[in-house]
Amino acid sequence: LKNDQYEINFNKTMLQGFGVDTNAIISPNEGNTLYLYYGAQCLKDETMAESILNQWKKDDGYKIVHFNGDFHSNDYLGTVEKLGDLDKKLKIAIITPIYADSGKALDYDKSYSGKTNFLIVMDQKPQDFDITQSMMGGHIAENYIVNHDISINLKPNQHYLEGTDKISFYNPIAKRCSVRMLKDLKIQNISSPDGPLVYNVNPIIDDSLYNEITILAKEKELTSIEFKYDGIVNHSPDIILLNQRHSNTPGIISGDDDKGIYLPGGSYCPKTDNDVANFNISITIPKEFTIVTSGTFTLTANPENSGEHIYQYKSELPLDDMILVGGRYIEKDTSYDGKKFSLYTFKPSPAGDAYLKASIEYFKLYTKLLGPYPFSSFSIVENFFASGFGMPGYTLLSNRLMALPWVVLSPGSLAHEFVHNWWGNSVYVNDELGNWCEALTTFCANYYYYVLTDKKDKALDWRKKALLSLESLPNKSNYPLIKFKYQKDNNDATIGYQKGGFVFYEIYKLLGEKGFFEALQKFAKKYKGRKAFWYGLSTVFEEEVKKDSQNIPISKIMNQWLYNPAIPTLRLENVRMVNDSLKFEINQDMDFYESVPVKINTVAGEQWHNFTLTSKSNSFAVKPGFTVKSILVDPDYQVLRHLNKWEIPYSFGRILEEKPLLILPSNKSEEYKILEKFADMIKESGYNINFKAANELVEKDWSDSNIIVIGDTKSNPFFKHLKKLYPENISVKDSAIIIDNKKYSANEDMMLLNTAHPLKEGKLMTIIYTKKIDSTEPLQRLFHYMSYSMLLLDKAKIGRPLVDMEIFPNISDKFELQYYFMCDK
Which residues of 405-436 are buried (b: 16+ CB within 10 A; e: fewer)? Predict the structure, then answer.
C-alpha cells in the first residue's frame, strides 16, 4: 500500500463519515482500522483496474467507459492511478460530476483543471435518508479484543498480582494497536507468535490511573499477543458524597477483614474500550478466599502449593467486561429450573433464605416477560464498599445494604440488579451513544414489578415520584436523555433512570403489554452478547407496530424524548357539552406525540378514555351517555409532563436546589460543631448553601431566603418563629415530636418536614427536628428521601420511616387539568 495523497484523502473522508473531527488525533486502534479499510479500498481499485485492462487487451479497438464512485477516480488517483501503473501507454480520461444548488450560477474553480478532464455540473437533489451515527455504530471499529486466555496469581495479604494474558484481536494488527492497563501493573514482556513487535508504555492524558501500551508490528500482521505483568493493586473505594449512591474503585486486592478483591478489566488484564470478548481465566489464590465472577467454573487444588486452590472460569457468552470479586465468603445455594442460585456473605446471613427465594421469584416473573435467562446461575455477593452493581450472572450488594432485607427486597434493589442480566449484562451498552439500559431496567424492575404483582398504588407512586424528581431537577443539570452515560449524582439518576423509565412507559402505553414485551424479547435475542443502541430499540418497536398494522410513529416518539431535554405542559381548555357530546381540548406547549388518559365522572360512575395528542392543539369529543359531573386529565400521573403547583408536594430535594440558608443551633450549643461539619458536607456535595448559627441571625438574613432549620427548641432559638406553622396533625414540644396524637422521642427519632416559608410567599422551608446530635450519620440518611415532604426516622436503626406523608401547597383551583360541571370536589 502506498502512503500517499490517496490515503490522506481516504482517511479524511472516512473520519467525516463517522462524524469525527478530521484534525483530531485518532488512537492507534482507529489508525490501524483505517489502514485496513484503506487496504480494502485499494483492493477494489486494483480489481477494477485489472478488469479494465483485461477487457482492453481483448478488444483494443473500442473505448472503454467505466462507472465508479467518484472517490475512486478523483484527482487521477485510485483506480486511475492503478490502471496507469499497469500500463503507462493507456490514454485515460476522467469525467467528474459536481453538484450545485438549482438555478444558481457556478463560478469555475481553476483547481478543477488538475483533477479531471470533463466536469459535469448537476442539480443538488434533496437526500431522502440519513445514515445516523447510531446506525453506523457511531465510531470507527477498533482492534478490540475478542478472546482472553488469562492466568493470574493473587496474594491478597500483599495486595499483589502476577499474570499472563494471551489475547486475540478482532482486526489483525497491520500497523499499531493499543490497550489500557493500570499503572500499578508493570509490564514484564509482550510477545506474539505471529512475529516480532515493539511496544511503548505511556501515561494517558487526563487519566492518572492508567497507561496506554502501544504495540507496533515490525514485519507482518499480528493476530494475537501475550502479555506478562505483575504489581500491587490497592485502591480503596472512593468516598460517597451526600447526593451520590455508588462507590467504586479501579481495583483492589486485600486480605484485610473489612476489604477484599475487586478487579475490573484493566486492573488484571489488558483492555480496550470496545471489548466484547470471550474469557478463559485461571485464578490461583489462598484457600481461605473465594473468587466470584461471570461464567461457569471448576475449583481444584494447586498441585504446587497445598495452601492454594485454582478457580478456572469460562464466560458463557462474549462479555464487555469480566470483573473478579473475592473474599472470605460463606456460600449458600439452591437450584431451580436447572439454574443455580447462590448467596456469598462474609458472615451467616439471617435473611439468606429470603434472598434466594426472592431471586427465584424474580427468575419466574422476568423469564416470562423478557425471555430465557441468559446465564446458568445467579449469585448475590456481599461487597465491602457502598455499591449495588449488577454483573453478568451475579450482583454485588454492600454489606450495609445486605443487613437490610426490606431494602434489598424492594423492586429498586435486588430486582433491579436481576433484570440487568438482560439489559446491560447480556445486551451491552456503549455509553458514548447513550445509556438506554438503566432506563429499561428501571421500567422493568422498579416500575413494572408493581404491575406484575398487582400493586397499583405502588405503581402510581413510582410514576408520581418520577415526575416529582423531574420537577426538582435544576435547569443547569438538565440535558437530553440521549446524553446520559452513567449516574454520577442524583441529577443524572433523575434523567437516566426516572425520565428514561417513564419514556419506556410512554411506549408501553401505545404498544400494549403484549406488543411491548414481545419486542423486548426480540431485542434481547438479537443483541445477546453484543452492544446495542437506542436505535436498536426503536427498530424492534417499529417492527412490532408494522406487524400489527398500527399507525404509531415510533421513531418520532422516541426522538422527541431522547433529543429534547424538556417535557411538555398540558392544559385542559374549552370544555363544553354540545347536545349529548362532551367536547374539549387538551393542548400542550410542545409538539409531542403522546397518549393521555382522561377520567370523566358522570352521575352513573367514572369513565376512562385515552386520547392521543399529535400537535400543540388537540380537539376531542366523546359521548358519555350520562350527565357529566367533571373531567380530569391524567389524574393518575400516566403522562411524562410537567406538574402543576397543586400537584407538587413540598420536598427536601426542591429546597436543596434553591440556594437555601441552613440555620444551625446556637454556636454555643453542643451540637454546633457537628452540624457545622454537616453543612460543609452538603457544600462539598455540590449544593449551593450558606449557613449561620441562629444566635447570629437577623431577620433580613432569612426573611427572603429558602431556609433549612435544624436542631430543637432549646438548642436552636430560631424555632420560636415556627410555633404556629406546623401542619394541624404535627407539633413539637422540646423532647417530643407529636404526629396524629402519637408521641415520639426527639432524642431517639428525627423528623424531616418540608413546608412553606414562615414569611415569604413562594419560598420554602425545611425543618429537621431532633435532639442530642452526636454524629452526622443519621442526617446523611435524609439524602435518601429527597422526594419526601415529611418523614420520621429512628436515628439508631436503619430501616423504613416510622411515619411519612405528603404536604401540598394550599391551592384549591386546579383549572389546568380539571373542569367541574357540578359540585363534585
Answer: bebbbbbbbbbbbbbbbbbbbbbbbbeebbbb
